[in-house]
Each structure stands twice: as structure tokens, then as C-alpha cells.
Amino acid sequence: MNTRSLVLPELLPFLEEIPTVDLSPESLPAFRDGLEHLAGQSFLQAEDYPVTLERLTIPATDTSPAIRLLSVRPRKEATAPRPALLHLHGGGYFSGQPELTATQLCQFAQDLDCVVLSPDYRLAPEHPFPAAIEDAYTTLCWITRNAETLGIDASRIGLTGESAGGGLAAGLALLTRDREGPTLLFQNLIYPMLDDRTIADQLNSSPVGGEFLWTRTSNTFAWTSLLNPVTPGSEDVSPYAAPARATDLSDLPPVYLSVGALDLFLDENLVYAQRLIHQGVSVELEIVPGACHVFDQTDTQVATRSIARRIDAMKRGFGL
């Protein structure tokens, strides 16, 4: 179905600039190179913000490799330990790095007066599940153990992520609950990738989702890369890989979830939000009309408004 007429006019130049590509093993190297270039540009632009950017390293252990972290903190002097925001980047689980949204992370650090920490977690297909989720959990535990050195309050850690990073964040919330690990104040999930079963045509799925930027073909490649050797859609998929598979969503931190009406992930996001509500989890849901995947990575009014709503939700999550 041609959905260009449904796209917000202010987003059409973005779609002209960033053509939609069905990702595959053959196109992956070029896609990764493209995101690395964008990450470099974003990192350079981040230097204009009144924040301090550092690259830290979590040391390797017998069970975990070394993990590189991007740290973003306000330059102004802190009068008390700051809250921490653990960020998990997008990229379909097979690409991306923390610097990809560095300017947005700078805005979070500045507006929330918090320390943002974003790990460069291992990527599929070289490192399939559970590599990424274990790196995320290792990062969360390391942040908690090193709170005094980092100048943060270990009792005030929030969680955010976009696309695959949003799915990873949702999976991390489940994992730390089940392992009785560090407590999280909230989940800020931005068009999260939650359900491997989306690769199949499901009943009542939106006919207007997934034409632009993130297609069913790319989604199938991503889930196949992440879950290998488990087959996407099979009964053996872990809820920590695909949080929509979790049967118990109780006792999770409050959720702010934002997704565009033209995003492939709209249906799975709506179902997940409803299930969270039914199991007693506080949910705030934003559906952006006329918006496709990664619409917020644009210099548009719709992106500005959406990001402002997320920041407001995170302020409330931190008790600010």
C-alpha cells in the first residue's frame, strides 16, 4: 500500500534524503558504514552543548567482555549526586553505536540534569542473543556499583532506548526484575522492537505500517540475525529477546511509549502497552499521526514536540 500521502509534509524531505533499503547480509556493511558516519556527525554536533562527553570502559571479566560506554553529563557543578539515565541505542540489533543520537543524549543530560550512560553493546549477527541483553545488564550493574565514582544516585536510574534499543530496554526491565537486580524508575520506550512474530502477516495488522525506513524485510533480517540459531516465530524465543513474549508484565517500572502511526512497530507497541496496563503497570502512550520510523531524528516540529513530551515524562519519572 502506498502511504506517502499519509506522511506529515514536514517529514517528506527526510524520506527523500534517506531512501528506504531492504536490509540483507549483502547490504549490511554499507548500512553500518552509513550509521557510523551519522554517529560521527552527531558526536561533533554534541560538542556545542554545555555538557562533558567521555568514553569510559567497563573492564572485561571471566563472563563478560569489555564494554565501551559513552558518558554525557552537564558541565555545571552538581550539588548532589545526579540521577542516571541508561540509554540503549537503536540500529536493528545489527548496527549503530551510542554516538548515533549524541545530540539527543546531550539534551537529555542538560534538561534532566542527569548523567546519561550508553553502552556500545555487542551486535548481531556476529553476537546473537543473549549478547546484547547481557551487556545491557552488565552495564546496569556496573553503574550501580560505581555510583559514587560516577557522581550518581544509584536509587534513581531511568531507562531509555529507541527501536532495537527500545526493545532491549524493555527486555532489560524484565531481566533485572527477574534477577532481582538494580531497580529502575521508568522505561522510556521509543518505537520499541518487541515482537519477533511481526515478521509474519498477523491478523488485523496495520496496512499502512512499514513502508518507509524500517520494512518487513529488514525486520525479518534483524530478528533472524539476533535469534540465530532459534527461528523467529518459533516457540523457543526468549522474552528477554522479544519482550512481547513475556507472560508476566507485572511489577515493571512505569512506561512512556512513543510510536508513529506509520511505523511497522505500531501494532506490537499498542498490544504491549495494553497488556502492561492490564497487569497494573503505569503507561503513557504517544501515537504520532503521519510519522514513520525514526521520525524524531529530524529537525522538524513534530520531532521537537515528541522529544519534549519524553523529557517531561522522564522529569516526572525522576521526581523533578
Automatic annotation (TrEMBL):
The name this protein goes by in its record: Esterase
An example Gene Ontology molecular-function term: hydrolase activity
Source organism (scientific name): Gluconobacter sphaericus NBRC 12467
Signal peptide per UniProt: none
Domain Alpha/beta hydrolase fold-3: residue ranges: 85-295
PANTHER family, sorted: AB HYDROLASE SUPERFAMILY PROTEIN C4A8.06C, ALPHA_BETA HYDROLASE FOLD-3 DOMAIN-CONTAINING PROTEIN-RELATED
This protein's record includes keyword Hydrolase: yes
Keywords on record: Hydrolase
Transmembrane spans: none
Statement: the UniProt record of this protein carries the keyword Hydrolase: yes
Gene: aes
